[in-house]
Amino acid sequence: MAAPAQQGNPQPTPAALAVAKFLKSQDLKMRTCILNGQRKDLFKVKRAIRALESPAYAAARKENPIMPPVTNRAEAEDAFRLMPLNLLALRVSKTDPAGADNGHGHSHGGAGGKPAKRVKGLWTVKIEQQQEIRDELYYTWFYEGPQWKNTLMAIGVLIVLLAIVMFPLWPPVMRLGVWYLSMGALGLLGLFFLMAIFRLILFCITYFVLSPGLWLYPNLFEDVGFFDSFRPVWAWHKVKRPKQKKAKKDGDAPAAAADVAPSEKPVLSPAPSQRDLRPKVEDG
Predict the structure, then answer these.
(1) What is the pLDDT of residues 238-253, one digit of tens each?
(2) Using CB atoms within 10 A as the burial measure, which of 44, 69, 147, 158 is most buried?
């Protein structure tokens, strides 16, 4: 199935919207990707088909009969096909932003002809023309769902900005409270920097005294939650051992021995000039 022409914004059918809302509420193990410089949610087809064949879909269809029936694999694929037909989700494939070329030796991604930079841990994808449905393929969401959360967030940001602009009109008590809060925040920030410096000094001392060294709050700068950053309280420095290099050396040893062995064989065999030519006397 070819990708539908993206001319205008056609209104999705009620059945397609119902299926999209159901799939968005399921655990499809989505990951973030980059499409045309924007972050999108990526999911695998097999997980969507599995969700459509689950009892949860049957229960949702009882509450909303407009959703298409699904009793087998073919009907599940037909229900999922509503996503690309209504431009709610489209098939994408992974691409290399640095290697993308427009046919004239220039990259599409960066400004001034420079190649686009890769985002670590994120796929850069492109929309495929053929919208096939197979378990191993990936689709990305274009359906964002109800926008009331975004509307509330925008209103909240606007209120905060107005409150900051009108700060001179605040009562003296509120302004004094904000000053105390700002001083407390600066104190916590300074304490954090002092702790980072102290843990570095402690590691440098223990590196020479108690090798391999001790880290205070080893997960402080790791990509973990707030509370997990302070657990455990201390830990020994982890030293990476070059296991692969050793294995490579061990693997090269037999090959080296095999290369040496043929050259040693002529040396071990007696040369014609070294043969014993003396007459042998046999006992009669």
Answers:
(1) 877 766 554 555 555 4
(2) 44
pLDDT per position as a tens digit, 28-55: 988 889 898 888 989 999 999 999 999 9
Residues in the chain with pLDDT < 50? 101-112, 246, 253-273, 277, 279, 281-284
Q: How many CB atoms lie within 10 A of CB 223?
A: 8
| Cα 129 to Cα 91: distance, rounded to the nearest angstrom | 8
Q: How far is CA 204 from CA 154, 198, 199, 201, 219, in A?
A: 48, 10, 9, 5, 17
User: Across-strand partners of 234?
Assistant: 216
Which residues have a Cβ under 8 Å from the Cβ of 251 and sit 6 or more positions away? none
Model pTM above 0.85: no
What residues form DSSP beta bridges with 42? 31, 140
> How far apart (Å, rounded) are the C-alpha atoms in residues 159 and 181?
20
